[in-house]
Amino acid sequence: MTALAVEALTAGYDRSTVLSGIDLSVPTGGALGLLGRNGVGKSTLVMTLMGLVSPTSGRVLLDGRDVAGLRPDLIARAGVAIVPQGRRIWASLSVAETLALATRGHGRRWTVDTVLDLLPRLRERLGQQAGQLSGGEQQMLAIARALLTDPALLLLDEPSDGLAPAIVDQISQLLTTLRGEGVTLLLVEQDLHLAFAVCDRIAVMEKGRIVHEVTTAEFRADRATAHRLLGVA
Ligand SMILES: Nc1ncnc2c1ncn2[C@@H]1O[C@H](COP(=O)(O)OP(=O)(O)O)[C@@H](O)[C@H]1O
Ligand SMILES: [Mg+2]
């Protein structure tokens, strides 16, 4: 099955078109790493998939059902969750309050307890205000909050941003564990090592389009293309 298929998706803001015909797909249980320079539209794509930016045309198929243009809450109910760029946690809420707000009900795969088993550090911080957590802990909280909506497809927008390498390793292990649980991932990253460790395919965006898509092994073997598209060594 194909968890996510995006077909000819266009979207933007007011007068500017940012996404000009995106095609991509992620098989159920797969993980696609989405790379690209600043400003090419990666966050706009993720926000459009979540329904936070309205598409102007194209399709977003979740297990074959078109959700393009639906409200974010309906897209969430269809099994999509977002870990937004910059984490977007409420600084004044405690960890426990943040998790309680995200919880949808009983009988689900992820509960506050199972999420805290996965993220034991957060259990020690339950009473603390989210704004007082370290950057890594805030990122873990943003991931925990997303998991509590029980996503089949998790969209992560630069989860490693600003974090120390040891914390990025923890995020890498966490995402690998989630893959083992069958969660499908779309991971926007600047940290190539994280994308390589977690994802089986890599796509590159330039100016609102996917210009390259290969297996992670193929991407790693082709340094010239990586350099041309991303400017990295
Ligand atoms: N809320 C917004 N309103 C208007 N333009 C925006 C908004 N968010 C992003 N943009 C513009 O859309 C383009 C793509 O931005 P973005 O999707 O954030 O790229 P990336 O995540 O790849 O860095 C940029 O030119 C950016 O300035
Ligand atoms: Mg971005």
Please tell me about this protein's structure.
The structure is a single chain. This protein has 233 residues and is of the alpha/beta class. It has a domain at 1-79 and 154-165 and 186-233: Rossmann fold. The protein is 36% helix and 28% strand. The protein has ten helices and ten strands. The chain has helices spanning 42-50, 72-77, 95-102, 112-118, 120-123, 135-147, 165-180, 192-198, 216-221, 223-230, and strands spanning 2-13, 16-27, 31-35, 55-62, 65-66, 80-83, 153-157, 184-188, 201-206, 209-215. The strands form two sheets. The protein has a six-stranded mixed sheet with strand order 6-7-8-3-9-10, with helices on both faces. The chain has a four-stranded antiparallel sheet with strand order 2-1-4-5, covered by helices on one side. Strand 7 (153-157), helix 7 and strand 8 (184-188) form a beta-alpha-beta unit. Helix 7 runs parallel beside helix 8 (192-198). The longest helix has 16 residues, at 165-180. The protein is globular and about 45 Å long. The N and C termini lie far apart (36 Å). The model has no long low-confidence stretch (mean pLDDT 95). Residues 42-43, 85, 157 line the site of magnesium ion (MG). Belongs to the ABC transporter superfamily. Keywords: Amino-acid transport, ATP-binding, Nucleotide-binding, Transport. This is ABC transporter domain-containing protein. Residues 4-232 form the ABC transporter domain. It holds the Pfam family ABC_tran.
